[in-house]
Known about the structure:
The structure is a homodimer.
Chain A: H1 2-26, H2 38-51, E1 65-68, H3 82-94, H4 105-111, H5 115-134, H6 139-150, E2 154-155, E3 160-161, H7 168-179, E4 183-191, H8 192-196, H9 199-203, E5 210-222, E6 225-236, H10 242-251, E7 257-260, H11 266-273, E8 280-285, H12 306-314, E9 317-320, H13 321-324
Parallel strand pairs in A: 1-4, 1-7, 4-5, 7-8, 8-9
Antiparallel strand pairs in A: 2-3, 5-6
Helix pairs in contact in A: 3-5, 4-5
Amino acid sequence: MKTRRFLGVTALTLLALVCLALSAQASGDPLPSWHDGAAKQAIISFVDKVTQQGGPGYVAPAERIATFDNDGTLWSEQPMYVQFFFALDRLKQLAPQHPEWKKSTAVRAALAGDLAKLAKMGHKGLLEIVGLTHAGLTSQQMQALAKAWLKTARNPKKDMLFVRMIYQPMLELLAYLRAHGFQTFIVSGGGVDFIRALSQHAYGIPPYQVIGSSLKSKFVVKEGKAEVVRLPKINSIDDGPGKPVNIALQIGRRPIMAVGNSDGDLAMLQYTASGPGPRLMMLVHHDDGAREFAYDRQSAVGRLDKALDQALRDGWTVISMKNDFAQVFPAQVK
Amino acid sequence: MKTRRFLGVTALTLLALVCLALSAQASGDPLPSWHDGAAKQAIISFVDKVTQQGGPGYVAPAERIATFDNDGTLWSEQPMYVQFFFALDRLKQLAPQHPEWKKSTAVRAALAGDLAKLAKMGHKGLLEIVGLTHAGLTSQQMQALAKAWLKTARNPKKDMLFVRMIYQPMLELLAYLRAHGFQTFIVSGGGVDFIRALSQHAYGIPPYQVIGSSLKSKFVVKEGKAEVVRLPKINSIDDGPGKPVNIALQIGRRPIMAVGNSDGDLAMLQYTASGPGPRLMMLVHHDDGAREFAYDRQSAVGRLDKALDQALRDGWTVISMKNDFAQVFPAQVK
């Protein structure tokens, strides 16, 4: 009798443990790489609010638009934007046949390795080099070149694959939002074709939800085959005020949530903040020199100054990489 | 006994009828407003081919991009683009306060009711008027104006609500494609804000899957509120070669299917046709003067001439409104 009761209790305990495990799995933490803290709490209570049907903050799925910057927000941007290293490799390869490219200030700075000068030119200088080195290619061809390059290219400061330096907490955030009916967009100062080379695979974001800086293009029919090829002329710089302008043009709705990390994202965050109902504006603050990089107000690449002031003043959420990210990079590359 | 058997047979017959009805509903015709014929067959076999996993024509869902023209393809465009009547109403309302607008050829033609001249100017003339009459508005404000106008505005030739003159077979086609993993896009010469006023509600297409002609915009912050307002300058004419150029810019993938109705869609169809694997290129031929309008090679609005030649030469699918559409307009407005 005693043994039986003992067994009975053991069986019950086991059952309880199994139930606990199952319920933990079911209601499991969707953001395990985020430390419990103000940033994680802000995300969860925002998503709860906009998805609670009948609640005062409810937002219909069609209006759940979240926009993310890319460089410095979804992956590392130091010591320079990843795309710069890609463009530089291509520039070195092709420049000998094109002495006329030396007319470009950006090209001269790049070939001289003058990162500071290039950083000052921002996305415009980068796009100028991309334009020269990719003119005549289709967006598919540009994506293919970038894809191949990203397979082996490494960050010179960290000696890690660039594609390894995507932020694990951001991958979880993107998936969490989509699981709650959000449409996630990238709105980046980087070149649109370059980002599209990795957006679907790395972030689960299809190419038509990527907005970026772009070159002008031309429709050509050659031997019965129709193509669209890029021209060495800038079409749009998707940075600063260019971000909300392109959001209004391509998305046609004001986001209810936006995430950035630099002054180049300020206009997008202001545009997001100016709508009615619940809003979530977030800034990644790079304050973790040990695990990633530490920079803000003085940095030439990804300067975070005015946007930080407004975030602090208006109560936007500042994500501290040091304190909010339990893990920075994924355990392995996808 | 006889009565009982009689009742038994009746019950069985009833049961059989119920089963038949249920099975018809379950495996029901997804395109009931299309007559059985070459066009319907082309659609169904194309969708079967690209969705058959392991089959030679299989296309992954992420690549199932279908682009649709709007005017004349999804709804009627005669005697003139719907947006023209909208812009004209607004022009008449605002012109008295703006004598300087008379500098514009398009404005003078519109105020004089010179449809022929306006039609010759195409989407450019229309967009010029839209720019003048909507400068300083946000895209949300433009959409709200168009939405309100569409509630009561009627086609002058047919005395039907414009929103009633959407093609029922196209609504079925859009839903059928989406049910098979396609992403459906509108790629129209019309103004993007105008189309977005109805795209979600009428076609089930969200604003970020609408590409159209557009005005330049400006980011402004007024009393702490950030907005993007339209300027009276043309940004992009999404017609002819502009269609594939904007597809490459905003979608970033070549469509595997495209549907249009005029020479303004030819470049989009050529671009679609030039990719590898299964492709479906379709043209709506307006040959039904009784139920809608009959026009093609000689029409100023929606001219179908060169595109028809290429369709016939290359075996693209020509949809005869008269013979392929069992029903043209929906029984009621959504």
